[in-house]
Amino acid sequence: MRFPTSHTPISQKILGDYRFRFFEHCIGAVDGTHIRVFSSNDEHVFMCNHKGFLSQNCLFICDFNFNFIYSLCGWDGSVADATLWKDAVENDIEVPAGKYLLGDAGFTSCDALLVPYHGVHYHLKEWRQGEIGYVESFSMLCIDLSNSRCSPRNSHKLFNL
Amino acid sequence: MDIQARLPAGLCTLHNFINHFDPDVFYHPDFDVDDLMRRFDEPDIPTDEGDDEHMPDGNETERAGLQRNAIVQAIWDNYLAECTQQGIPLPT
Predict the structure, then answer these.
(1) Both A137 and A159 in a single domain?
(2) ipTM of this complex
(3) For A82, which of B23, B50, B86 is closest by C-beta distance?
(4) How many domains does chain A fold into?
(5) What are B42-54's pLDDT values in tens digits?
(6) Between B4, B19, B64, which is nearest A110 by CB?
(7) Closest Cα of chain B to A124: distance in Å?
């Protein structure tokens, strides 16, 4: 796994696709995921996550060629994604200046992270059910405009689609 | 825990290896990613936790907000133009 430097070119998956033209400085996407673990009784209080099962919280960053470029594993399941991100940037990775990663609402907006607006509903469920048509990234760049179920009333709602 | 914590990183490396040398395997009909998601993906519970802790300093928050707003405005302008072009009523 190799994290991009300032010399790493932006993926052709971004630059070569008209739909992603607004994200020309994006180098990947980050998220935390809970992976089930077995732990001693003493550790249960730390390893139990907000979903109610024992896990390690892991932070993964992927590029647009479907490669993992960073992983941070072994954190207690009770710890929030934002804490893992803080650990990563303080100890491991440096997002090149002017570049950013996509994150979800579990992260705080900062130079290195483009996140949705907090408090504005976004439609992961509808994406997965295919109700909004073909969507790959943050915005509705590629939604079917004729779909009346998807008529954002302002720019924030549009972005969070 | 020490060993369990190493497993995900090892699997990431294995994934990258396969993705590099034989990426078509991920598109094979037998590779049912939807089934994998059903079996292993835990339901996501939005936490909005990002607001609560580890706030970057005010300057960075403002700078990041401006960067996001610029992208959002460009997308919004494009959306309105597309609506107009396709004869779809503009949002009110």
Answers:
(1) yes
(2) 0.80
(3) B50
(4) 2
(5) 666 655 555 455 6
(6) B64
(7) 10
